[in-house]
Specification:
By secondary structure, this protein is mainly alpha-helical. The protein has one domain. 55% of the residues lie in helices and 0% in strands. It contains eleven helices and no strands. The radius of gyration is 18 Å and the shape is globular.
């Protein structure tokens, strides 16, 4: 599993933005709010395309990403463009995504499972292209896994007990995330991932109450 070490590129890269993390964790923006910047073209500079494709080819080996194949398809659907850096629109998306990951605990998930707690703003010129590529891949992987876990759960019910028999459902996290990015509706997409039925809402409320009692 990929981990950030104090002497790694990730530690050096994210240290200057610790204040951004605190701001996001303390007062995360409303996920349903719509971005106001016109979305960029889905075309990507050739150099960026080559760098992303090269990194994705070795994603399993270098980063031990849980969903490497899903990640490759996600970037292919976006014509191998950077998702979370490069302009103000991408920066807004990154902040929205980080805010959702920081609140994963509200859905009964562990925020630490999604790795990313910081991400550099648009001004990434002081970092190498490899560093920017790796950051983009890691945040995309975290968001894709989070979306799948909130919508479908981390464990299939029939893996818990053979006595549980539920109708299986599918969820294409990569395609759904691509659609949200193209339609400028990432916040709405993330806020509507959780099951809407009453039992889930009650369970989520009881989890919040239990944690308040612990405090």
């Amino acid at each position: 599993m990929f981990r950030f070490h104090h002497d790694s590129w990730a530690a050096r890269m994210f240290r200057p933005y610790s204040c951004v993390v605190l701001l996001l964790l303390g007062s995360a923006p409303t996920l349903a709010a719509q971005d106001t910047i016109d979305p960029p073209s889905l075309s990507a500079p050739q150099a960026g395309v080559a760098a992303l494709q090269s990194a994705l080819e070795r994603a399993d080996r270098d980063y031990a990403l849980v969903g490497a194949n899903n990640l490759r398809r996600f970037y292919a659907l976006l014509n191998y463009r950077f998702v979370w850096s490069g302009d103000g629109f991408a920066e807004q998306h990154a902040q929205t995504a980080i805010a959702a990951l920081a609140r994963a605990g509200e859905e009964g998930l562990d925020p630490l499972e999604y790795r990313m707690t910081a991400y550099p703003p648009t001004s990434v010129l002081q970092y190498s292209q490899d560093e920017v590529v790796q950051s983009d891949l890691l945040l995309s992987d975290a968001v894709l896994r989070y979306a799948s876990n909130v919508r479908m759960g981390r464990v299939a019910p029939d893996q818990v007990s053979s006595l549980i028999s539920l109708e299986s459902h599918s969820f294409d996290a990569a395609s759904a995330l691509v659609d949200a990015l193209k339609n400028n509706s990432l916040g709405k997409f993330l806020s509507e991932l959780a099951p809407p039925h009453r039992q889930y809402v009650r369970l989520k409320s009881e989890l919040s109450r239990y944690r308040q009692l612990q405090d």
